[in-house]
Amino acid sequence: MQADAAQTLSYRGRFAPSPTGPLHQGSLLAAVASYLDAKAHKGKWLVRIEDIDPLREIPHAASAILKSLDAHGLHWDESVVYQSQRQVLYQDVLATLAACGSTYTCACSRSELEVSAGRHQRTCGIHGASQQSPPFAVRFRVPHQTGKFEDCIQGAVPYTLHSGTDDFVLQRKEGFYAYQLAVTADDREQGITHVIRGLDLLHSTPLQRLIFQSLHHNPPEYGHFLLLTDAKGRKLSKQTHARPVDDQQPMKTLYHVLLALGIQRQEIDQASTIQELLEAGIQGWNRENIAAKTNLVEADYWHAEGKA
Length: 308
Ligand SMILES: [Zn+2]
Hints:
disordered N terminus
């Protein structure tokens, strides 16, 4: 594909898995999509391990994920970043957001939130940062807002945000930094220009853009692709028992991932090494091909694999 000249100079993309299990087919597809988009734009591709939720993490999963990426020829361009080592950065960003009035403390209990299916109902933040004593969560003060953002795969994505109920957590009561804060702080600090990820994270994008706005920093471009599903139409994930990728058969797996990403069969049939496969993938990469039909090709392969 033809890369935009300005993007070519500065593109920085990333793949950011959580170490909650080994790399499976769906997460490998996400890795390859972000890799191909970065390389098709002559950009850098970074890997960040999102290990800020110790309760969900599995020992050695991070090293297993990195080993699988390596086995599939997906080599990252800079040192791997671990969120568990970046508490100081998150603390700084949280302090900056607090200083500009974008946050408030919330002592709502878990049972209060459960009544409303986890959505925030109270108006803790109405009078500015309240004077509650810990433990409390820190929430982002979301404005009433109807708008749209330009997704580089899906096109214009409309959204509506509700002040109060959509006020999301930046730091949890237990002191852990929450996903939205850590991701935005990292994307900003790492100079990420493009975030290519699955549609399951689409709802996060307006929230992350709000944080960027509060920090007076341009957000990255976001592009969301359709997720692989199993035979029942469920997203391939650890919850649906997606099978870990087989590091002993990287050629076979990569071949099917490339087909699922819209690369033409004749473009990759001649490839005899992993590098040739990936190179053909880069040449054939086209965002338009992954807008809506990611999982419609090679369905038999994925479904057969998913059953195992
Ligand atoms: Zn509250």
